[in-house]
Amino acid sequence: MLDDQPLLRRYAAEGSEAAFGELVGRYANLVYSAALRRVGGDAQRAQDVAQLVFTDLARKAGSLPSGVVLAGWLHRATRYAAAELLRTERRRQAREQEAAAMNALQSAAAPDWDRIWPLLDAALDRLSRAHRDALVLRYFEERSLAEVGEVLGLNEDAARKRVSRALDKLRADLVRRGVTTTAAALSTVISVNAVQAAPAGLTAALTSASLAAAAGGTGTTLTLLKIMAMTKIKAGIIGAIAVASVATPLVMLHQAQAELRERDATLQQQVNQLALLAAENERLSNSVAQADTMESPSTELLRLRAKVGALQRQNAELAKAVATAQNSAASSGQEAGTNTADASPPAAEPFRSRVQAVVNFGQTLITGGWAIAPGRRMLIFVRPELDHTSSGASTITLHSTGIEMTDSLLGAYGLGALASDSSQTVQHGQLAATADADALLNKLAAEPNTQRTGLGIITTLPGHSAELQSGDSTGGWVKVTVTPSLAPDGQATDLQLEINQQMPTQ
Questions:
Q1: Which residue segment(s) compose the domain that 68 sits in?
Q2: Model pTM greater than 0.70?
Q3: pLDDT tens across 166-175, in order?
Q4: Eight-class DSSP state of 490
Q5: Burial class (CB within 10 angstroms; exposed 0-12, middle 13-18, buried 19+) of 51
Q6: For the segment 35-56, what is each residue's pLDDT rounded down to a tens digit?
Q7: With 0-12 CB in 10 A as exposed, 13-18 as middle and 19+ as buried, what is 43?
Q8: Residues 365 and 469 in one domain
Q9: Residues 6+ apart with CB under 8 A from 183
């Protein structure tokens, strides 16, 4: 049998996987046993240490001295790797405890949305126009401070002060009516809950009825009023369709009615989502632990995992091509009058992936691209914004928006490289100037068969995780856990995102 030195030379010179595999087979038991003793008998940690040691061997094989005793070298490398892993674990536990403490403080000050929403609009009405406009632009339209300043004719610093003063006045008004909260907690709860996505069927019906009313004069005014009230009075829809038939095709209104029925369940799910807010803080702590546990301990390990992900994507694409050919053959048989059975398209699978990117303030990260249904995918736009508390501490505000689209539309806008599937563990992303990203998002939202989903605005401290979610366990949900870190120059943030998608309960 070959000794260690020829195997090391073959791997270093030729990249021979067979030679490296032989070395791993010889010393795997030694490394794992040493690691198991050093991590206190934890089998999972021992496996992680063994992975680190053999990754280090693969990287340093060409630089090892010719007379090195490989068993001794591996034993020392196991000691260093285990010590580093344990240090990382202790730091993770410290961060988790800090996040839990912060979470408890925020929970104590977080207002109850069920108590706020009945008073919110009346409180906004009592503000001055300037303060009301500032809050609507910032929290209801989800605009940045620079955009708020541009609309109001102010610079960014003046816009920030106006929004802060308006939020303080709104909070004081709510406090007088028995709702105790802080300005920071109030801004968070308004950002998450104040704006709900209108159902697509409602938009189509309102557009059709409005155009019909404009074309038909006063004779169709009654129709317009009935359609505007249809989310509350479902029985009035049939009468509205009959009156509008003079100016609007009857088929179009029947289609709008069918879409409303389909979206009714979605609206109910969005209402039920309010009940899940009490559990969000606990999920945030769990997400911090999961994100820290999944962090790759070395750049080389990430590179190897990326190669595995690429091979998995190639296999998935090959399987899709075969399935497409089979479906095409089945469709041809049906057109010729054969009795070929219909093939049901594969359902989208639960998705979990991670992406890490350094994003300058003024840039937007575009990522996602996973399948949420046959022929449809979702992109996520994440824009970080640097802010400061009254005490001068730095905070990072994250603006997140999701948009659903077809596979063909993803390719038409040059975003095909972002397409991914459930087998990937490392996600792709691309950066764009915020103005360009906003323009792209608006163009995509204007396309047919697209749906824009506001994941919300949330503020967190650098190094702490924040969680954004759309949907619930019944209708399916998308959850994005974001951990931003401030760059040393203060001009950028290192974003770590973990994306989870759960399909609807059948």
A1: 4-107
A2: no
A3: 999 999 999 9
A4: S
A5: middle
A6: 999 999 999 999 999 999 999 9
A7: exposed
A8: yes
A9: 164, 167, 168, 171
